[in-house]
Amino acid sequence: MSDAILETRGLSKAFRGFTAVDSVNLRVQRGHIHALIGPNGAGKTTFFNLLTKFLVPTRGKIFFDGKEITRDEPAEIARRGIIRSFQISAVFPQLTVRDNVRIALQRDTGLSFHFWRGEASLEHLNARAMALLAEVGLEAFADEITVNLPYGRKRALEIATTLAMKPSLMLLDEPTQGMGHEDVDRVTQLIKKVSEGRTILMVEHNMRVVSSIADRITVLARGSVLAEGDYAAVSSDPAVMEAYMGTMQGKLEGMRA
Going edge to edge, which strands form the sheet with 169-173? Predict the structure, then answer.
């Protein structure tokens, strides 16, 4: 259907007899924030790796914008507009904040691998880089060496570099992992802000984040889809509570209170 930007059908991945992802059918609607949650070992990161072709599916199909991409190479997946962030912040620590964004912006110039060019060749990207930094609230840090940024602002920078690649679908893997409350709130609001006019599929453990910004939630357990729906439906599902074995049940009940 036209409202689905991403769809998987029977997507599975087995490793020497262990099935990490088992016949997952998922539909991500265009313009939505879709959260993928589940206990540790549920298969969430493996599922992301299948979408971005870091892993090859054992069986099943992946469709993006109505076209099958199951056998596409990782570079082709990125060219189609599926751009991923990782659990570990992936920025260049010894470059300035602005230079990190300018590097990401080079993709559209066709000069990404022209390392012999001087810095002056990137000056035409400054205006766009600053606009992206403003979008994520980092314009005041443009000349700061990235290693000096607090962790939450590094994650914001990573979102800026992701936006620089003009994603049709942003895959965010644990965007608030390891953050204090203040940084979690800042990044949560940032994700909500940049989602306008874009589609986001995110893996996230923080239920407060999920409840506040996700339009739809899919719960994985042992590699399979256990439940799906909005937060109210998922948080009250007995099967979801049982799968979490109490570790998340208290949080889920707390969020409903």
Answer: 82-84, 169-173, 199-203, 33-37, 216-221, 224-229
